[in-house]
Amino acid sequence: DSSDDIEDVSLFDADDDVSRRSKKSKIRHPVASFFHLFFRVSAIVVYLLCELLTSSFIACMVTIILLLSCDFWAVKNVTGRLMVGLRWWNQVDDDGRSHWVFEARKVSAQGSKTSSEAESRIFWLGLITCPMIWVIFAFSALFSFKVKWLAVVVMGVVLQGANLYGYIRCKVGSRKNLTSMATNYLGKQFLRQVSFPGFWKPS
């Protein structure tokens, strides 16, 4: 049996030190920001250019999987915590039950944010865009009958999709919140159309 737990807890004591840094810096964690994009972009580049670089499919496959694995670990354990204050993992309790835990950094008493908008944009842009590219690669490999590449592409979709799902759960809280956000967005679009009917009329 498995259940989902949503917890709002502080991440590490070190986060208090981060909150004291200058707010003028747009990117407070340049190394984390670099590696957040480096591994996942490198895996995509190697996939696109591997046939030009080498004729060994095994070497390409191993390289891509290593890059995807490094990306999964770095994003799940490091860059998410530093760049946006989110973290997720799975733990097993004493009864053998599996729990998915989704953490979000607590806002400080002064209400100050420890992550910058620039880092947040970099984080979410890389987190959302790259899995979409791997999905495109999956359809391309399927329709072009490149069966040997299909396993590599599926690995990319699974590893990067898992991080995307985990951080979305951290951000919005639960599946109910996901549904609520979608409903609210559609409601706002409907109200805009009703409030400004002339705006939607063809010229």
UniProtKB/TrEMBL annotation:
GO BP terms in the entry: protein secretion; vesicle-mediated transport
Question: Subcellular localization, per the record?
Answer: Membrane
Q: Where is the signal peptide?
A: none
For this record, the Gene Ontology CC terms, alphabetical, are: Golgi membrane
* Protein's name in the database: Golgi apparatus membrane protein TVP23 homolog
Give the organism the record lists. Haliaeetus albicilla (White-tailed sea-eagle)
Predominant location = membrane
The family database entries (InterPro entries) matched by this protein are listed as: TVP23-like
Membrane topology of the entry: Multi-pass membrane protein
Family named by the database record: Belongs to the TVP23 family.
Report TM segments: 30-49, 55-75, 122-143, 149-168
Tell me the keywords, alphabetical order: Membrane, Transmembrane, Transmembrane helix
- Origin: domain of life: Eukaryota
